[in-house]
Amino acid sequence: MAEIRKDIKQSRKFSKVKKNKKLTWKIIKNQKELMFMSVPFLVYIGIFAYAPIWGWLMAFQNYKPGLSILKQQWVGFTQFTNLFSYMGFVQVIRNTVAMSLINLVLGMICPIVLALLINEIKSMYFKRTVQTISYLPHFLSWIIATGIVADVLSTDPAIGIINNLLMNFHIVSEPILFLGIPKLFWGIVGVSTVWKEVGWGTIIYLAAISSIDPALYEAAEIDGAGRFQKMRHITLTGIKSTVIILLIMNIGHILEAGFEIQYFLGNGLVSDYSKTIDIFVLDYGINQFNYSLATAAGIFKSAVSITMLLLANFISGKLSDEKLI
Amino acid sequence: MKKGIKTTKIEDGVFNTFNAIFMTLLVVVTLYPFLNTLAISFNDAADTLKGGIYVWPREWTMFNFRSIFATGFLYHAFFISVSRTVLSTILNLFFTTMLAYTLSRKEYFLRKFITIVFVLTMYFNAGLIPSYFLIKSLGLRGNFLVYIIPTMIGAFNLIVIRTYIKSLPDSMIEAAKIDGAGEFSIFIKIIFPLCKPVLAVVGLFVAVGAWNTWFDTFLYASSEQNLSTLQYELMKLLSTSMQTGTTAAAQFGGKEALSGAGNTVTPQSIRAASTVVAALPILMVYPFLQKYFVVGLNVGSVKE
C-alpha cells in the first residue's frame, strides 16, 4: 500500500513539473478566449471577497470614522483583550456554541432518521407527497418561519395552538409565554430549525441510499436479516461516507448558530440566552459604531471556523479515508 | 421456520402502520402553521380575533390583501423584490456557467488557481464590518445594484455547475472545435443549453436566496423607501408586532384600523396576508423542480 502511495505522489510531482515547463506564450495565446471568459471574475472575487480583508487592520486600531485607515491609532491586541475581558462576550460565545451544537446534533440525526423512514414507505405516491411537503418550510424565509413559530407559541387564544392544546388537555391552567422563558430559548431554536430544515436535509441521504446496490438487500434477506437489521447494516453503512463528509462541513460552521432566528425570536426577556456572535457584531459594529471591536469579534469567528474545519478534516482523515480537502 | 416468517410479517405490518402514522403527523405539523396563516389571511380580521380559525376561513374576505396593496409602498416593494430576483438569477446563472465552463476545460492553465481562489471563499469571509466598508466605498449603498453585484457568483454553485459540465461528453466540444468554433460560441451554443437540469436547480437556489433576503436592504438601503423589498417590509411588520405583543396595535393596525363597512384590519391579519404574498411565488415553483434537487446538492463534488 505504502509503495503505491509513494508512486502516486512521485507521479504527481512529475506531472506538476511537466505542466510548469509547458506554460509558454503559445499556450496563453491559444487560451486567450478562455482567459477573457474567466479572468474578469477573478478580479470580481478579488474585490468582493479578498479586498475587504484589508479591513481586518481595524481590529488592531482604535478606529475613528473619518480618518484614513492608515492614519488611525494602533493599539495592538487591546481590542481582543477588551473583547474577552468583557463578560457579555463569554456569554455570547456560550450561546453561539450551545445553539450550533444543538443544531449540529439535531440537524444530522433527524434528517438521517427521516430519510431511513421515508425510504421504507412502499407507496410511491405517498412517498413523493411526504417529500414535497417536507421541503416546504425550507423555502420560506426566516422572517416568515419565525413569524409562524411566534404564532404557534403565542399566548393569544385566537392563534396560539400549542397553548390551546395544553389547556384543552388540562396540562396547564394558564397559557405559557414560551418565548419569554430563557431556559427554553435554545430548545425552541433547535426545534424550529429542525421543523424548517429536516425535510430538505433528507435529500442528500436519500440520494446516497438510492445508490446502494439492491443485491446487498437481497443477499441479506436470504441470510434471514429482518427489516431493522437491513436498515442498520446495509442502509446506514451505505450512507456512512456521506454522513462523515457532511459532519466535517458542518463542524467548520460551529460558530454559525444562525443569525436571523435569534435576531427575530430573541427579546429582552431572553437576551442572556439568545445573543450570538453575529448579533454581537451587528450591535457593536453597525448600531454603536464600534468598528474595531466588532471586527475583532469577526476575526475571532473566522479563525475558529477555519481551525475547526481543518481539525475535523484531519481527524476524519486519520479515522477513515473521508476527507473534504 | 414458518412461525418465524409469520412474526416478521406481523412486525412489518406494525412497522408500516407506525411509519404511516408518523409521516402523516409530520405532514400535519409541517403544513398546519402555513394553512392557518393562509386561512387567517382570507378571514375577516375582526372575526379572527374571536379565535377558532384553524385551516379554513369562517368569513371570507379579500380585504386584508386589498389593504396591504392599497398603501402603495408594499406594491413597490413587491416590484423591487421581483426585479432583483429575476435580474440576479439571470446574471448569476449566465456568469457562473461561463466561468464553470472554463474551469471544466482540463487544458486551461489557470483552472486550478481560479478554482482554489473561489473554493476558499466558502470557508472564510472578511466579516460584516469590512464588507460594509467595501460596499460603502464602492458607492453601492442606497443603489439598486447592491442587490445584484455582490452576489453575482457563488462558489458552491460554481462547483456544482462545473461538476455537471465535466460529466458531459467531451466529443461534442472536440467536434465543434474541428468545425472552427471558438470557446465562447461553444459555451453559448453547446454547453449552456445542455446544462438545463443543473441550471434549473441552481437557478432555484439563487432565486430563493434573492427573494428571501432582507439583510442587504437593512444594511445598505434602509433609508431608501423606494429600494425596500417585500421581505424587509415583512420584517418591519413582524418586529413591531412581536415587540408590542401580538394583539397590540402595531404599525398598520394603529394607523389604519378602518372600521367602515364591517371592514377592519389588525396587525395579525395584515401580517398573515403579507406572509402569503411573500411565500406564495416560491411555493408555486419548487414542486416542479423537485426531481433536479439532487443534482444541486452533490456534496462529493466539492472534492477536487
How does this model look, in words?
- The complex is a heterodimer of chains A (325) and B (304).
- Chain A contains 16 helices and no strands.
- With 325 residues, chain A is an all-alpha fold.
- Chain A folds into 2 domains: 25-55, no CATH class; 83-319, MetI-like (MetI-like fold, Orthogonal Bundle).
- The radius of gyration of chain A is 26 Å and the shape is globular.
- The mean pLDDT of chain A is 84.
- By secondary structure, chain B is mainly alpha-helical.
- Chain B is 68% helix and 0% strand.
- Chain B has helices at 2-41, 45-49, 63-70, 73-104, 111-120, 128-137, 155-166, 171-178, 183-194, 196-212, 215-220, 230-243, 251-256, 267-289, 293-296.
- The termini of chain B are far apart.
- The relative contact order of chain B is 0.13.
- Classes of the chains: A mainly alpha (325), B mainly alpha (304).
- The interface between A and B is large, with 94 and 96 residues.
List keywords for this structure.
heterodimer; A: 325 residues; mainly alpha; MetI-like fold; 2 domains; globular; B: 304 residues
**CATH-defined topology of the largest domain in chain B:** MetI-like fold
Class from helix and strand fractions of chain A: mainly alpha
Taking all residues together, what is the mean pLDDT of chain B? Answer: 83
The succession of helices and strands of chain A, N to C, reads HHHHHHHHHHHHHHHH
CATH superfamily of the largest domain in chain B: MetI-like
By helix and strand content of chain B, what is the structural category?
A: mainly alpha
**CA distance, first residue to last residue of chain A:** 21 Å
Count of discrete structural domains of chain A: 2
- The share of residues in extended strands of chain A comes to under 5%
- Low-pLDDT runs of 5+ residues of chain A are none
Order of helices and strands of chain B: HHHHHHHHHHHHHHH
| Approximate helicity band of chain A | 55-70%
The CATH first-level class of the largest domain in chain B comes to: Mainly Alpha
Work out the oligomeric state of the chains in this entry. Answer: heterodimer
Strand content of chain B: under 5%
